[in-house]
Amino acid sequence: MAADGAGKPLMLGVSNPFAENPSMMTLAQYQDSCIPVSMEFAKSKMHWIIAAIFLVADMVGGGVVAMPVAFKQSGMICGCVFMLVICVMFEYTGWELGEVWVIMQQRWPVYKQHCRKPFPEMAKKAMGTTAQRLTSLAILITLFGISVVYLLLSANIIHYFLADYLYINISVCGTIFLLTLIVAPFTLLKSPGDFWLVVVFAMVTTVLSVVLIIYGVFLDHGACLPEVKYQEFEPGSALLAMGTFLFAFSGHYVFPTIVNDMRHPKKFKLSIIWGFLSVLLLYMPLSIYAYWVYGDSMEKSVIYSVQTRELQFGANLMIAAHCILTLVIVINPVNQEIEEYFQVKHIALR
């Protein structure tokens, strides 16, 4: 069981954990990770519905185009089982992350203020400074890598769209540079509560991409279904597909940053329930329908299995827009870690 520095276990149900040790409440002891509360921070805190949208935008993206292909590798029945089991497991662990943050706010009220690195602070209280540093390193590497992938993917899609439809020839490197200039100002916003509108747009682009893909599959239904073939179940192929399922529901590295910006962190459980349910409703119908229609002939991305070229480009553009907008979410914990390390003051947009 996790414990604080005094050896007391972190658990709910403690009415006044500071009665025996008032020094636990001092702000100075924790100034390295948290800043004083302000009216601006209080006003920027999110409703649990907005937090749920954050979760959806964080998880959905590449998973939309990859999940049907995972069904091709695992088969219909195994794919459905994998998706449901992993969804429930990740939902539970996300729920627990929210509960841990609530416990920390009860035991150390300073965490009710804005905290730049909530996930490493959880690790510090549970297992010490070494765990905190390892957690910070893991988060920095993971989120920076994901941000680079999102930027490269969206730049590649936009590059081909400009060349094929608008006859504007800009190199991929040039497209990356222009996208970076456009996105950079939005990454200067302090925390999720300050750019919730960006996430709403990311959610809209995701839904539109799913609708376009399903419509494309529907148009191909008559021509493809009579010729469809399904590969026999192979345990090795199914195990390889599990990595895609795990990726499609990943995103926990951002969860503590989101719950830290909520108006009522105890309601994060509602955000988790509705967020994961929404992701499941986006993934499951698309994956089942696309695999049923295309079967073994499905391309590496379900978008390229759609025969209507206009729908391909439309879905790709929506995915590109989603990646650009989600990049703002994903890079935020990295920025806050770096700012904390260099003791950057909160000025301007920060």
UniProtKB/TrEMBL annotation:
A cellular component term, taken from the record's GO annotations: vacuolar membrane
Protein's UniProt keywords contain Transmembrane helix: yes
GO-annotated molecular function: L-amino acid transmembrane transporter activity
Protein name per the record: Amino acid transporter transmembrane domain-containing protein
Pfam families in the cross-refs: Aa_trans (PF01490)
Chain ranges of the Amino acid transporter transmembrane domain: 46-345
InterPro entries associated with the record: AA_transpt_TM
Species annotation: Mesorhabditis spiculigera
Keyword Cell wall biogenesis/degradation: no
Topology class, membrane: Multi-pass membrane protein
Transmembrane segments: 48-68, 74-95, 134-153, 165-188, 195-218, 238-259, 271-293, 313-331
Main localization category: membrane
Subcellular location: Membrane
Keywords (A to Z) from UniProt: Membrane, Transmembrane, Transmembrane helix
